[in-house]
Amino acid sequence: MDEDGFTRGEKSARDKACYLIVQLPWLLLHLPRLFFSALVRLVWGEAAARFAWQKIFTPANFLTSARFVLLGKAIALFFMGASLATQTHWLFFALATDFFDGPMARLNGEVTELGTYLDHSGDWGVTAWVIFLSIWYGTLELPFLLAALGAILLLFAINIAKFLKFRDPLVPLIRNVGAFAAEELQTDFWGRVQFVSLAVALFGGLFISVSGEAGFLFAGFMRGVGDWARTITYGALALSVFLGGYNTQEALDYSEFKAKKFRDKLRE
């Protein structure tokens, strides 16, 4: 993926900010990496173990996978009748992993296609569940939520159509999928801003709703924000919808020339 200056700058700044935070977990996550790679070696041999070590069992992929575990816990709490504040805590920590898995992968030269798909799936899985909770508990007005959801679904549909146009039928599907992730699904600066603004809006609605509940971890923060909380929440939601339109326009840029270039590179 050819990155613009904004995207390179954002990733560089985030990587530097996270360096000291992510390196110790990166070392600790080598324990499960060693264990699972050894299992692969026993069953499928050295070549498969090397591939698993480099492409599957990376520390960043383990961290991204934790997002699914935390999301699953939050969903289970919903069906168990837990308070919205408790559910919000687990969802917030699930989303927080998104800030660190990218820097962990980039700083250690371990960006993988699987990691890209896990990252996007985890992000939007958390987002989809928070949208559901926002509707279920009425934390944000429905028209605004539907506008944000519509922008997301449109972007998904365009990327699926883009993949179907780009894919090379002469190349195995798994290679097509991996190459498409590396080339087209790496989040750029404006995609990151759109996602962050949507997250601020959705969690803002939850935070406002539970700020008075006993045991809410961020009650002090919400008292500090005060009356600005609703303004920030709906301002972020409006920005997300606007950038959804912009990113949709960017995603629609898939000429036959770009598709041919993608297929030629895939066959190299």
TrEMBL record:
The chain crosses the membrane at residues 74-97, 144-164, 195-219, 231-248. InterPro entries: CDP-OH_P_trans, CDP-OH_PTrfase_TM_dom, CDP_ALCOHOL_P_TRANSF_CS. GO terms for cellular component: membrane. GO terms for biological process: phospholipid biosynthetic process. Keywords: Membrane, Transferase, Transmembrane, Transmembrane helix. It comes from the Bacteria. It holds the Pfam family CDP-OH_P_transf. GO terms for molecular function: phosphotransferase activity, for other substituted phosphate groups. Belongs to the CDP-alcohol phosphatidyltransferase class-I family. This is CDP-alcohol phosphatidyltransferase.
